[in-house]
Amino acid sequence: MAEELSYTTEPAPKPTARDELEGLIETLSESGTLRALQGFTGQFAGVSGAALEHLTGPAGRRLIGSVALLAEVLSNVPAEKLEGVASGFGKGTERASEMLGKEPPGTLQVLKLARDPDVRRAMASILIILKSIGEGLGEGDRSRGQQDGIATSL
How far is residue 21's CA from residue 7's CA, in Å, rounded to a whole number? Predict the structure, then answer.
């Protein structure tokens, strides 16, 4: 019968902060990131100057205003609703990309798809959003006799 051996193993030595820093620098160097960072920091004054020059011009002011307005709009939308729209958009683009290169669906197939409750729900939502945008652009002038059918009926 074999005799049982007993021995203790020593845990691997914990790397020092210096070892970890050297490993990080080596990884950054091998991936080319260190070279890119060196180039960017060498041109930082020029890059930041160009960015500031662009932002202080008319286009930059419009960009900042648009980003602020978009942030305000998004802050009024509950995150769970926005998540549902984003998730559906992502799935939809995946499904649509699968159709690329294939024969497009026929008219009857499109009409059949339009009967789907999810499709009708999305189409109604898009139409309501478009109506609201039109109203915001001044297109919803009721004095011209336009009907308010879609928003009130849904």
Answer: 34
